[in-house]
Amino acid sequence: MELSESVQRGFQTLADPGSFDSNAFALLLRAAFQSLLDAQADEAVLDHPDLKHIDPVVLKYCHAAAATYILEAGKHRADKSTLSTFLEDCKFDRERIELFCTEYQNNKNSLESLLESIGRSLPHITDVSWRLEYQIKTNQLHKMYRPAYLVTLNVENTDSQSYPEISFSCNMEQLQDLVGKLKDASKSLERATQL
Amino acid sequence: MLLDLSEEHKEHLAFLPRVDGAGKLNVSSDTVQHGVEGLTYLLTESSKLMISELDFQDSVFVLGFSEELNKLLLQLYLDNRKEIRTILNELAPDLPTYHSLEWRLDVQLASRSLRQQIKPAVTFKLHLNHNGDHSTKVLQTDPATLLHLVQQLEQALEEMKTNHCRRVVRNIK
């Protein structure tokens, strides 16, 4: 994990009981996790009466440093020893190290979920709908008398947040082919997960 | 059901018996064109309506051709009917049709935002045809959705075997 100087300086300040007493430290830590993980969090997250006595510039600086580190740690799946080592290097006392590690552990799953969901991927199929019809005639062709399916795939695009649909028609044979292939993929997946 | 041939059609087709054995045509290009158009109309309309052999023979009878020519026309109709109907089918308002599906199993191991992942996914290449154009769509899904897709589409296939559908198919002819 590569951490910038500002992150390190922010943590050194957080370690100092003169700048952040135990209560203020705990509040700032919680605020950092909240800003990252709570979708409804806003700037008011630092607006706590017990943080009022701290210079707002210092508060923001340390809050940013904490959030940055938390994301980096989450990204690299840092374990307790990695966290401890870094915090020790920043001159944290035992109590604060424990507190940080506990908060991190409590929020680890949400953090990893969040990080996992960021990124580009191919359009993702979320659902399928189908319609069965019996074709009788068109103006070009009479006496058709055959079943046909209309299949619509609901698709989600991660980056554009759009929801296009892919629709196509097929006859019985073609649908059987499609289902057959989907089942092959499914069985293959099952086998692979058993390895 | 008999074919309804207008006077104009009958006139166009009247040129057919005049084609001599050697295949040489001693007529104007207009006449030839009309003849071809008339023949085309005869065959496409017959195919579209899927008229029976008997009905076709009766329809052609009014043109007053020789026995031999009538037989020839009937054979032409029967030989080409299926293909003509396939072509006519493509003229209907249409959605892309399914052609085939390719699939691939993937496991995402890491991304820029998160390392050490094991995220299985299935990637598809869906081949579709639309009015002669071939298109492909590359899509992905997760294992749970894949099972859901299979289940839903199997239900769709099962539907054709229900009493309701069988009754409809039996009775609408």
Structure commentary:
The complex is a heterodimer of chains A (195) and B (173). The two termini of chain A are 32 Å apart. Chain A is of the alpha+beta class and 195 residues long. Helix content of chain A is 53%, strand content 15%. In chain A, strand 2 and strand 3 form a beta hairpin. Chain A is built from six helices and three strands, in the order H-H-H-H-H-E-E-E-H. Chain A is elongated. Chain A has a three-stranded antiparallel sheet. Chain A has helices spanning 5-15, 22-37, 56-75, 80-89, 94-117, 172-193; strands spanning 124-135, 146-156, 165-170. Chain B has helices at 7-13, 29-49, 53-61, 67-89, 143-159, 163-171, and strands at residues 97-108, 119-130, 133-141. The mean pLDDT of chain B is 88. Chain B is built from six helices and three strands, in the order ααααβββαα. Chain B is elongated, with a radius of gyration of 27 Å. By secondary structure, chain B is an alpha+beta fold. A three-stranded antiparallel sheet of chain B has the order 1-2-3. In chain B, helix 2 (29-49) crosses helix 4 (67-89). Chains A and B meet through helix 5, strand 1, strand 2, strand 3 and helix 6 of A and helix 4, strand 1, strand 2, strand 3 and helix 5 of B. Chain A: InterPro entries: COMM, COMMD3. Chain A: It holds the Pfam family COMM_HN. Chain A: This is COMM domain-containing protein 3.
